[in-house]
Design brief:
single chain, 377 residues, alpha+beta, 4-stranded antiparallel β-sheet
């Protein structure tokens, strides 16, 4: 194989022109470089020698891909609730608790019945790049996917800056264009994958369990479905002495909706009401569960495990999200394992305040400024 020419937009989306695609690729490349360098304000977390940027280093012919998937319903809510109704209601109440790289918004009719639930796993960084390069397109996309009532003033502040949490992309009933929960970012995905490539040893014993690894390496949130599992699978590849990266196009994608145990009033498979609405085949970043008005019943008339669908969260129980890792040079990447991550100390012996984990590299704005400088040379 050869070196990747550039990183493509998530889902191979076509919103960006050639210049915009170059900006996007530059931004993702910088995220990879920063994550591969590791956190130098910690002990035992840099460099991450097995993680590589495929636009700088070739992917060897022995490359193997590994799909890593997890359930979209937030585990934090599930383990801290005493009943299904309680956890579904809590998960539907705020996007801030929808922390498994999947967020949703529920549409109801005048009778309170659900008619449609929109789900997104699209990272916010892409929208920041698009908004700076083509704000009119951002407005059109919101009008297409969220509401024809959206105006540019709803999405941008007085200085022309895109607002991630705007009136049409902040709650669970007005719309969900892309992810807004603080941990749900592509930067976090890249950082987590890179951090997990370091093999860990404690008392001469190699760590292998997901919880041991995430606590030792200090990446992500140990209480989520996603982060421990992503880290565990990636670290398993690292233990094969492989170089590791993320598959192009780098992104978070819908993997599947399982409708086992679901029942429709007409006896048909409820999965026919599940559609991917954005992103290419195999890389969907947006989905909807909607019963057309012509069916003469609503989403709330469908039952899951004998209970009618009253919350979008009931559907999230059955959605899986995925990313794809790539391993190559298997058995040839010899890197010494490290003990657990620890903070560095200043001259007084106090821990140095660590940099935020999610801020692995420059922001989309910085990438755009860099491209502007290059364009004027």
């Amino acid at each position: 194989m050869t070196v990747l020419n550039q990183f493509d937009p998530p889902g191979h989306l076509t919103d960006l022109d050639a210049n915009g695609r170059a900006v996007w690729s530059s931004f993702i490349s910088e995220q990879f470089d920063a994550s591969a360098a590791g956190r130098r304000d910690h002990l035992n977390d840099a460099p991450r020698a097995r993680f590589y940027n495929p636009t700088r280093v070739d992917t060897a012919p022995d490359a193997q891909t590994s799909d890593i998937s997890w359930i979209a319903f937030p585990r934090n809510i599930k383990v801290n609730s005493v009943a299904d109704i309680q956890r579904w209601r809590r998960a539907d109440a705020s996007r801030d608790v929808q922390d498994e790289y999947c967020e949703w918004s529920v549409t109801r009719n005048e009778q309170g019945q659900i008619t449609r639930v929109d789900f997104t796993c699209e990272g916010p960084e892409y929208w920041e790049v698009l908004a700076q390069l083509d704000p009119a397109r951002v407005v059109r996309l919101y009008q297409e996917f969220v509401s024809p009532k959206v105006s540019q003033g709803d999405l941008f502040d007085a200085s022309g800056n895109y607002v991630r949490r705007n009136p049409w992309n902040t709650g669970t009933v007005q719309g969900a264009m892309h992810l807004v929960q603080g941990a749900n970012t592509l930067s976090a995905e890249i950082e987590l994958a890179a951090a997990a490539t370091i093999v860990r040893v404690v008392n001469d014993t190699e760590l292998t369990s997901e919880q041991e690894l995430i606590k030792c390496s200090q990446y992500g949130d140990a209480t989520r479905n996603s982060d421990p599992h992503i880290g565990g699978v990636v670290n398993g590849l690292a233990r094969l002495d492989a170089d590791i990266t993320l598959a192009n196009p780098v992104g978070l994608y819908f993997d599947d909706l399982s409708t086992a145990g679901w029942e429709s009033p007409d006896g048909s498979d409820p999965k026919r009401f599940w559609t991917y609405t954005r992103g290419e085949d195999g890389h969907p970043v947006r989905a909807a569960f909607e019963v057309p008005a012509s069916e003469n019943f609503t989403v709330s008339d469908i039952s899951v495990g004998g209970q009618p669908i009253r919350f979008g969260a009931q559907i999230a129980d059955f959605i899986s999200i995925r990313l794809t890792g790539v391993a190559c040079r298997i058995g040839k990447s010899r890197v010494a394992p490290m003990p657990c991550v620890a903070p560095t100390l200043d001259v007084t012996g106090a821990p140095v305040t660590p940099a935020p984990v999610a801020a692995a590299g420059p922001s989309p704005s910085a990438a755009i400024r860099d491209m502007d400088v290059i364009a004027t040379r």
